[in-house]
Design goal:
The protein has about 180 residues and is of the alpha/beta class. It is built from five helices and seven strands. It has helices at about 1-30, 65-80, 100-110, 120-125, 155-175; strands at about 40, 45-50, 55-60, 90-95, 115, 135-140, 145-150. It has a five-stranded mixed sheet with strand order 5-4-3-6-7. A two-stranded antiparallel sheet has the order 1-2. The longest helix has 27 residues, at about 1-30.
């Protein structure tokens, strides 16, 4: 009985260590100025990060072939709708080399938030992205305040409360003229 329990205990400790390491990495990769960018969208527009100064920016890196990305997209859409009339913008950056699979994916899931195309994959490298999905929350002053590795239920009450706090801070800053 004890021999059978030892591998389980060691496995649990290893898993706990991995979770702590990932949380540490997330904390270390927040608090820096968000690298600027200019990327085309599916509809031929251009997204420029600096245009959103004064707003909270939800920047998500994803791919059409990524099951965890597909898993989190519906909750991203609900979050996008929840904050649509507030100083909040959602940008999903996709590296697919062709726009057509991206269009099909968005249509299939009924997604309406902005999607930027980066077929050369230069922006993920600038943000230190190591896989998909990864999300960066950027505050009204252009600082990365949160980095999330992997999928998340973005409309979970605790997540919404955190983003609500960021958005309220942005609203106050805009009224006071403080977007740095």
């Amino acid at each position: 009985m004890r021999r059978a329990a030892l591998p389980m205990i060691l496995g649990g400790l290893l898993l706990l260590g991995l979770v702590v390491l990932l949380q540490t990495q997330q904390r270390e990769r927040a608090g820096f100025p968000a690298p600027g960018f200019r990327l085309p969208t599916l509809d031929g527009q251009t997204i420029v990060l600096s245009d959103y100064r004064g707003k909270v920016v939800f920047l998500n890196f994803w791919a059409t072939w990524c099951p965890p990305c597909r898993e989190e997209m519906p909750s991203m859409q609900r979050l996008h709708q929840r904050f649509a009339q507030r100083p909040f913008v959602m940008i999903a950056v996709n590296e697919d080399t062709s726009a057509e699979p991206v269009r099909r994916f968005l249509s299939e899931l009924g997604l309406t938030f902005a999607v930027a195309l980066d077929p050369q994959g230069t922006l993920p490298a600038r943000y230190g992205v190591t896989g998909y999905p990864e999300t960066f929350l950027i505050d009204h002053a252009g600082l990365v305040v949160r980095h999330v590795i992997g999928p998340l239920e973005w409309d979970d009450p605790s997540v919404v409360a955190y983003i609500e706090e960021l958005v309220r801070t942005a609203e106050v800053a805009v009224v006071q003229g403080d977007t740095r």
